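Dear colleague,

Following up on Tuesday's group meeting, I ran the structure prediction for the two-component complex that the binding team flagged. I've pasted the input sequences exactly as they went in, so you can double-check that nothing got truncated or mislabelled along the way. The structure tokens for the whole assembly follow below. Feel free to forward this to whoever is handling the docking comparison.

Inputs:
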Amino acid sequence: MSDKSSSNAYWAANLRIIGISLAVWFFCSFGLGIILRPALMGIHVGGADLGFWFAQNGSIYVFLVLIFVYAWRMNKLDREHGVEE
Amino acid sequence: MDQFTLNLIVVGITFAIYIGIAVWARAGTTAEFYAAGQGVHPVLNGMATGADWMSAASFISMAGIIALAPAGGYEQSAYLMGWTGGYVLLALLLAPYLRKFGKFTVPEFIGDRFYSGGARLLAVVCLIVISVTYVIGQMRGVGVTFSRFLEVSTDTGLYIGATIVFAYAVLGGMKGITYTQVAQYVVLIIAYTIPAIFISLQLTGAFLPQLGLIGTHTASGVEFLTKLDQVVMELGFKAYTSETTNMLNMFLFTMSLMIGTAGLPHVIIRFFTVPKVSDARSSAGWALVFIALLYTVAPAVGSMARLNLTTTMWPNAETGNALDGDAITRADIDTNPELSWIRTWEKTGLLTMTDLNGDGQIQYFAEPAAVTAANKALAAATAALAAAPGDAAATAAVAEATATRDAALAAAMIGDQSMAERGWIGNEVTKLDNDMMVLANPEIAALPGWVIALVAAGALAAALSTAAGLLLAISSAISHDLIKGSINPNISEKGELLAARVAMGFAIVVATYLGLNPPGFAAQVVALAFGLAAATIFPVLMMGIFSKRVNKEGAIAGMLVGLVFTAVYIFIYKGWFFIPGTNMLADIPANYLFGISPLSIGAVGAVLNFAAAYIVSGMTKEPPQHVQELVESIRIPRGAGVATGH
């Protein structure tokens, strides 16, 4: 495999991971926290509803996990493609 | 020991620590000055980034904005999601690649990637507007905190704060700033969370405020948020958890804050300081860990302060209905030592209580807009009559305004009775500033004196750490991008370091001047800072990394379109260059295009920036080979060396 196609494969894999991560990022904040809140009113979380909780607390926890999972996945990908530092 | 001495001791100790760190971490080279020699551990860098990011707005204002929002606290979740979600974008889309690029400043990347001194200059202009805007708010935060807790004037407080920042920022550069910010982070997070834990225990019995927020209110046995909603709705306010009436605007506001956060130069340069590309990724995660500690507590702080404040004003609300009992009396406020905080805050002007109907009580409730308008009209008519005593027309006008006002009072229902029946003529908490909620929180909850002193030190840490980060971003843009980049490329390292220090000193003087003479529009310009970061810097950085095709012409066109569109939309509602009276449309939701407020327009500006850049790039020549190779190289972590200025 030439250098060029290897780095293209690395970049394509990176874009796929970014795409999935951004989908999660969007779903927990804009999705659950804003757009879907009215539809999820029935699900109660201690005095409020699920959408409210995601908007004020839940999405932040998801963001956190997301960044560390992304960093871990990317470090693995770097090694698989031999481009780590 | 009295509160003042305690405040002085705690603040004095923290300041001594900051100066000590600055002396220990002096910068000797430009690499140390701009990027701390890239030797900062990701966890420490994350902490420093947290302190850098969490400004006076996060520490002092945000919980109050959420707690007191007229449309309910939920809608303001945009701040919580926006100011944290931006770090996901940083980690995924910008930080690792900019670290691999291995230079010191944001304009430098834009200049190299788009092979254009013009693009670099445009980026410098955006950076300076964004950072100067931001720094004014920090200097004001320092002044307000000093004047409230250390009994000096706001101006003296500002001078003291500016001297401290000057000492460690100019001396230490990024290295000194980074290590000082680690200490400041520790101070500010302890100061924010300790009162929150105390209050959460008092109100809900939950140790973690995050659990208290969704826990049960001990005194009434009802779920905490349900209790808060009941209490505020009884007094005519919108429920804390009520749904937004403008989902599109909330969506765009959150998006603008997110991409604005990811586009703020003083945040981005933090990721130039870590040793490796993989560290840049995890450093964004660590930064968010430390930021989330404050941001997940903030809604609890805000909502609990709101409940405490309301039950202080209406003692019966603690266990039953507010209106079943009497409101707090003016005599009680003036004599009860537990309520002395009301008197202290009244002195600052951030809180005013006026017994409008003269019944000796202070009634706090949501005054309907019709009553506010009728009261205003009556006051105007009365003033006109006073100016022309005996004038028949003026007398008739007063009589008419009185009748209108009385009708408004009769129509305004608070609970099961109208304001007229209750003998109320208006909300007697005539001013309640967002900014006092966090600072007064420990006093409202009657916490010990050292907690109050800690909050003062925390507010100062938040404002000073952000100010230092901004000043560094400004100084590196001037010395590195402007002087070395275009005016005198042959400047020696020593000369550049001197220029950076002079630029920073100059920036501090300007910031202090603007803090002393704040343009009346200080609050509005923050909208401009986020709007511009979102509409100019973020898109151009992202395209520079993810597209090989976007060229010089495209990037400049995109930045200009984003800049002009966003600025003009804000100016239409806030006045041209914020000059009062020059706005073309009143700043009210009815006038907004599709209901999009000027605060939320940055996201739209960003979309236009992307569109313009792609269209113009498509019509012009593709970037030269060496630029395409540069893009290839920043996409791959291997080979990231130490950053250089050349």
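The first helix of chain B runs from residue 3 to 24.

Cheers,
M.
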